Amino acid sequence: MDDKSKDEINAASEPPAYKFIPRVPKERTQMILISIVLVLLVTIIIGAILIGVHVTQEHTEKIIKTITKGANGEMVKQTVMVDTQENVAVFYIHSNTTSATVVYDYQQGLIAFRIHSRKQCSVVVMDLVDVPSLHEITELIDHSIDQVSEEDSLLYTFKQRGLADPNALGTTINVLCSDVPVYWAEKNHKKPRRRSVPCPDILILELCFAFL
Questions:
Q1: Consecutive 10-residue runs of the chain (212 residues): their mean pLDDT?
Q2: Rounded Cα–Cα distance for residues 150 and 210 (Å)
Q3: Cα(172)–Cα(89) distance, rounded to whole angstroms?
Q4: In the list 67, 95, 159, 203, which could disulfide-bond 76, CB 3.0-4.6 Å?
């Protein structure tokens, strides 16, 4: 037997060569497709939630900067933030002589004052003061009032009382006064009066608050 015949016999005895191509089971393919669809749905839902939060925030929070005419013609800058969802109005006040933050918390029925030159906060029960409603403040912001004069502003004077219990103040006021003591302030029995002299402490939307 020649060499050629031997090679033909050996080739015939060897198993044929097959290309192995793995096949994904049908069930696994379905699971992959379901996973992709779920990921897409979650992405769409998260995007919709984020858009909704942004739109809601735009509708519940309003911010405006105002300028008030202070003592001796001094201009007092105020930044007002109204959050209708939390029922809170916050006033950031700054001038050459005054730096203060005032919170109108309508949900708690309290007004908190932090004059930064004093190492304390003062809290007043809202019923004692003729403050505008949150809706009225929002209306003022919507009409973009640029300047408020302290002339003929309504003056309230307060005197300090005892320490306030943080549990009775609510979250917003506790955050404002987190590093200083908080005292109740009691309104003097005198009736509030219009005044044409400079406001001694804080002027907010024609309301002058003075602390003795």
A1: 53 52 61 71 58 48 69 73 86 81 91 86 86 80 56 70 89 89 80 58 70 70
A2: 13
A3: 10
A4: 95
